[in-house]
Structure formats: structure tokens, C-alpha cells
Design a protein that fits this description.
With about 350 residues, the chain is mainly α. The protein contains 16 helices and two strands. It has one domain: Farnesyl Diphosphate Synthase (Orthogonal Bundle).
Amino acid sequence: MNSSSLSALERAAGHQQRFDVSFAKYFAELAGDLNGAQLGRFPPRCLELLAQLSLRGGKRIRIALLYEAAGLVTRDEVPGLAEAALSLELLHSHALILDDIMDDSPMRRGGPSTYYACREDLPNHPQAALGLAMMAGDLAGFLALRVLFRAELPADRKQAMIDVQLGVTTDTVIGQALDLERDVNSSADEELLETVCEYKTSRYTILAPLRLGLLAAGQDLAPHEQSLRRYARLAGLSGQMRDDYLDLFGDPAVTGKPEGADLRAGRHTYLTRELLALTSDDDHDTVKSALGNPDCTPRTIDRIRDIAHRHNVHTRLQKAIDHHAQAAAAEAGSWHRHWNDEAVTLFEQLPLWGARRKR
């Protein structure tokens, strides 16, 4: 890795570390800022669960993208970025909580999912446990917008940033509905997989922080919109495929998720699509029987991993991951002619780094 790319990734890590400090401070002050947050047992528990999930790690990729998007335009301090960062990560917590409810996932980021923590709190009241988890997710979504509304910015700039985030919240819900449709559709094709990725990853994880950072820095988005969309789509596809890859080939101690979680949940991912398309006879039956079986044993997951290796599924999927990452890097490379080279370099490097990440 050359010195410029190392500097870009170190800069991204710095954004993430500084944000973690500010995120912890935000939650420390939040209870006193919310009317009724200390009433009863459930409101403070709801806030506590949200803080636990939000502060328990995560890649914080949106934070790096946000700050470096502003850095494309200027290296001066940019008002509104701190609020935009909080908004992005609160919305991410909202999405994670809903995803874990939808998938009945027991773990998230190396600890219990919010839904399972609520089930542990209320073992004799399953409906209340579900409701409490949903309230924690709703709280995160509403706080994501609240923090932007309170930002001290010129009215036109704040409105433009709020409009972006309002669009993202809508896209996220649409993406989650499409996610459900994909997983009950046994013949989900590549077009549906890409549409889910567009709404759940590309627009929400990549395009939104790009837009917010550029808007905060005073950049007119119109001349760059198509290039930003292409970059987000390509980087999003690569990132989603890598997530799918890590479900079977990742280390649970690093990913924070049990291996084979997508298989057990019956998720029709890029990985499961490749497995079903390339296998036949007993191998195909083994994969098919594990898909959607929550009681699938670790031994069966090991067998499916062996099947994937024999059919070169891991190689084929990684090749597609690398292809999209390289295309995204090339798209970012075209930005050198009108934006700061140092920040552009990070956008070139991030998809390539993401294509080989371990979590």
C-alpha cells in the first residue's frame, strides 16, 4: 500500500475515533434532553438499549464518507457535519434494530441484538418485548431527524440536508420491504437483489453521506449527481456482496455475527444464489434444506462451506466483489479534475479496502 493510500485510511480511522467520542457524549446528555425519558422503566430502558447498540462498535463507514465528502471541497472546519454524523449513525441504528427483528437475529456487533435483549428482559411477555424493541428502533429514527433540525446552519443549507435525510429514511423503509420480498421469493433474480442493494446499501450507506458532506461544504450537487450515483451503486454492490461472503467465510469473532446467519434466516443473498445455481444433487439438497432452517447445525454450515469451496463459489463471488470495487475506484478517480486530490484518494481506496475487509 503506498503512502497516500495509507494516509487516506488513517484519516478515515481518525474520523471514526473522534465520532465515537462525540457519540458517547451525545447519549450521555440525551436522557436529560428528552422529556419523559426517566419515567417508568421502559423509556429509560429503551434509551439504554439504543445507546448500547449504537456505541458497541461498527465500521462507521458513513462517518468517513461524510467528512471526506466535505473534504473534497475544503479542509476548513465545516458547520453541520457533527450533526449530520449523528443523524447518519442514529438512522443506521434504527435500520439495524429493524433488521434484527425481521431476521430474528440473536446477535449484533458481538452482543445481543436489541430484540433479543428485550426478550431477555421480558421472557413472559413476548409481545411487549417485540414492542419495546420496535420503540427503540423508532426512537433512533426520530432522533436522526431531530438532531439535523436542531443544527445551527443557514436555513437553505439545513433544509437541503434535511431533505436528503428524509429521502434516505423513506428509501431505507422501502429497502427493508424489498428485503422481505426477496426472502420470501424463492426465485429472486439478480435484478431484485440489485434493487434491494440500491435501497438498503448504496443510497443509505454511500450516497447519503456523500451528499450531506458536500452540501454542508456548500457544494452544488447537480453537476456531480450522476457520478455520485454511479460510485454509490458500484461501491454498494461490492460492499453488499462482501457482507454476503462473510456470512459463510468470515470469522464470527471478528464479524460479531454467528456464521451462516443469512442461511439460517432464509436470506436470498448473492452467496446463496451462487450456491443454489452451481450445485446439484446432494450438494444442492444440503444447501436448500439449510436455507431458512433456524436449527441448522454448525456441522451443516461447515459442510456447506466445503461445498462452496468445491464449486469455487468463494472465488466467483470475490471476483465480482473486486470487479465492482475497482469500477467504483475508477469512478472516484475521475473526481481529481475538480476536487481535492487528498480526499479523492480516500474515495478511490475505500472500495478496494472494503472488498477485502474482515468484518
